[in-house]
């Protein structure tokens, strides 16, 4: 049996969605997403065939042949229909409503045997992005959502402590919940586990571990600072650009993150739909930033809000941002929020200060634009920036049925947002794990999920 250290061990209720990589690791082994997501494109999952009508308003999805839960009962499209209807009322880990109800407002669902049809009042070609976040569980005899359709089956589950999985080939995996990265590393060195995940969270960042195989994976997450576009300094587009020009991202990643990051160029990561490797990097140009600050009539006093964690080393990142911005003419005070769930709720209520450090986790370009950028949607994470060009391009992209056309339109939006920033773009984290030498078949994907071959 191979023993693995995760930060958490749990299976959440069916109507709870999470972006926690430890919980998603277990979900991806025991269950299957309705569709898989890979570098911005859908791939077969629990449904292995799908089509979209010419008008973009009717999706037809078919379950893979023989799909069954681990108790032997067959999966029916009706199960997926009920799941989707229920999850539209879901809340995230902070108690904030997810956006699924808004995306699917006015939608209707029909299920017959292995076929699910989803009808939307307007074209919705990005629906596969949403379905890639939905994992279909079934309750076991103890009322736990541990019965899935994936390659690994739950053999023993002690919520919050450990879970043992087995596959058809007779292999066994045991996952232990070890909350601290330092404790996970100690367990690996002591031989209590053979693999430890999320070592990017060590107090002192590491890039290798003597005597062990070390893995690093750039992720889809974006570490950013939201800008208050409704009032104050960052209601001025020139000052939003100035702040971005003032940040030395390479030095931030090196000095604060120990090298564990990729400089951000726009609102999403290199893995997102529409991203191009040719997208221009945001230059470090303090002289240009100072010139823009000097030319603006807006106030230069800024309140920079930060949590203690999520993202990692948030207070240290805030101090770095403060120094960069003050060097080009801003005056920055830092407000530290100790209640992380409360902080998220405050940002959702637009109590942002002028800048607020946060992370953006959706792997869907559509979701980031709709939830956080579009002034037409004005969703919970939108912070007041109005950009008519982006709104018009996004409306065209989100209704474009042809995938290549839609990707090109998203690419244009991302390039525009790189040059005309709505947020302070910082970096995309790199996740790390270490394993005992000779232990093969384990990797991290861009969501930070542990994959098992």
From TrEMBL:
Do the record's keywords include S-adenosyl-L-methionine? no
* GO molecular function terms attached to this record: peptide transmembrane transporter activity
- Mention any one GO cellular component term assigned to this protein in its UniProt record: outer membrane-bounded periplasmic space
Keyword vocabulary terms for this entry: Signal, Transport
Q: Does the keyword Endoplasmic reticulum apply?
A: no
GO BP annotations, alphabetical order:
peptide transport
Q: Where in the cell is it found?
A: Periplasm
Family according to the record: Belongs to the bacterial solute-binding protein 5 family.
Q: Where is the Solute-binding protein family domain?
A: 42-345
Q: Which Pfam families match?
A: SBP_bac_5
What this protein is called in its record is: Peptide/nickel transport system substrate-binding protein
This protein's major location comes to periplasm
The organism of origin for this protein: Martelella radicis
């Amino acid at each position: 049996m191979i023993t693995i250290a995760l930060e958490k061990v749990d299976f959440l209720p069916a109507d709870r969605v999470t972006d926690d990589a430890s919980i998603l690791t277990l979900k991806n082994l025991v269950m299957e997403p309705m569709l898989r997501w890979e570098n911005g494109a859908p791939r077969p999952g629990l449904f292995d065939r799908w089509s979209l009508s010419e008008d973009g308003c009717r999706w037809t999805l078919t379950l893979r042949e023989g799909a069954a839960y681990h108790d032997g009962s067959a999966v029916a499209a009706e199960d997926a229909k009920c799941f989707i209807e229920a999850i539209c009322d879901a809340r995230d880990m902070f108690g904030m409503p997810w956006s699924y109800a808004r995306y699917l407002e006015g939608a209707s669902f029909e299920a017959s045997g292995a076929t699910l049809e989803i009808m939307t009042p307007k074209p919705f070609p990005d629906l596969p992005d949403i379905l890639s976040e939905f994992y279909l569980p079934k309750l076991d005899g103890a009322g736990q959502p541990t019965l899935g359709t994936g390659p690994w089956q739950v053999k023993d589950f002690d919520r919050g402590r450990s879970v043992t999985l087995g596959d058809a080939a007779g292999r066994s995996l045991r996952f232990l919940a070890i909350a601290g990265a330092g404790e996970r590393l100690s367990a690996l060195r002591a031989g209590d586990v053979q693999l430890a995940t999320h070592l990017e969270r060590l107090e002192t960042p590491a890039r290798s571990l003597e005597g062990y195989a070390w893995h690093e994976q750039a992720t889809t997450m974006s570490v950013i600072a939201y800008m208050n576009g409704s009032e104050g300094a960052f209601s001025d587009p020139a000052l939003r650009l100035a702040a971005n020009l003032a940040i030395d991202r390479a030095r931030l990643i090196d000095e604060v993150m120990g090298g564990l990051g990729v400089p951000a160029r726009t609102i999403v990561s290199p893995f997102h739909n529409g991203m191009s490797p040719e997208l221009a990097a945001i230059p470090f140009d303090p002289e240009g930033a100072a010139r823009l600050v000097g030319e603006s009539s807006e106030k230069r006093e800024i309140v920079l809000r930060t949590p203690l964690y999520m993202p990692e080393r948030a207070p240290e990142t805030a101090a770095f941002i403060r120094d960069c911005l003050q060097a080009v003419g801003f005056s920055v005070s830092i407000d530290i929020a100790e209640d992380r769930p409360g902080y998220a709720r405050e940002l959702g209520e637009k109590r942002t200060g002028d800048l607020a450090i946060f992370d953006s986790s959706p792997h869907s370009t559509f979701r980031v634009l709709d939830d956080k950028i579009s002034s037409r949607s004005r969703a919970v994470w939108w912070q007041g920036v109005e950009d008519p060009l982006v709104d018009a391009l996004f409306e065209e992209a989100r209704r474009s049925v042809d995938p290549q056309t839609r990707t090109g339109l998203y690419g244009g939006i991302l390039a525009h947002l790189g040059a005309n920033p709505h947020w302070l773009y910082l970096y995309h984290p790199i996740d790390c794990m270490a394993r005992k030498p000779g232990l093969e078949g384990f990797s991290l994907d861009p969501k930070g999920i542990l994959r098992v071959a």
